[in-house]
Automatic annotation (TrEMBL):
Identification of the protein by name: Head decoration protein
Taxonomic placement: Bacteria, Bacillati, Bacillota, Bacilli, Bacillales
One Pfam family this sequence matches: HDPD
InterPro entries assigned to the protein according to its UniProt record, in alphabetical order: Head_decoration_D
Length: 130
């Protein structure tokens, strides 16, 4: 008989009251290797002439930038995405309740710097008691 194992705890979430909304994104070339839980800022979107018009192009949130990536837009849902040398398609959360200690940012940014802006767009941060 097979041994029962419970699914591992997902450190990223801190709620579950309502399901998170997701969207397709493109992580901008030059962003490097981006991992699950990284807060991303929108720098542009695919043009109307593209088959996937309106798809947001994002990069890790970094308050020193002025290209749009200084403002939170979504949180990466995929485990690992390599956008070192080219744009990379991925999935992201547009809203939900997230463990503030599991979130990652670009540069030297911290969750404290972006909590209010994240809350304003529906990305709620919470402390998780372990």
């Amino acid at each position: 008989m097979a041994e029962y194992t419970s699914p591992s705890f997902d450190e990223l979430f801190a709620g579950g009251v309502q399901p998170e909304r997701m969207t397709a994104i493109i992580i901008k070339s030059g962003s490097g290797v981006v991992t699950r839980g990284t807060v991303l800022g929108r720098v542009s979107q695919l043009p109307e002439s593209d088959l996937y018009a309106g798809t947001p192009i994002v990069a890790p949130v970094d308050s020193t930038k002025t290209d749009g990536s200084q403002n939170p837009y979504c949180i990466l849902a995929d485990s690992v995405i390599d956008a070192t040398t080219g744009d990379a398609r991925a999935a992201a959360y547009l809203d939900g309740e997230f463990n503030r200690d599991a979130l990652k940012f670009g540069g030297t940014d911290t969750v404290a710097q972006h909590e209010v802006a994240m809350r304003n767009i529906g990305l709620i941060t919470k402390r998780v008691v372990k």
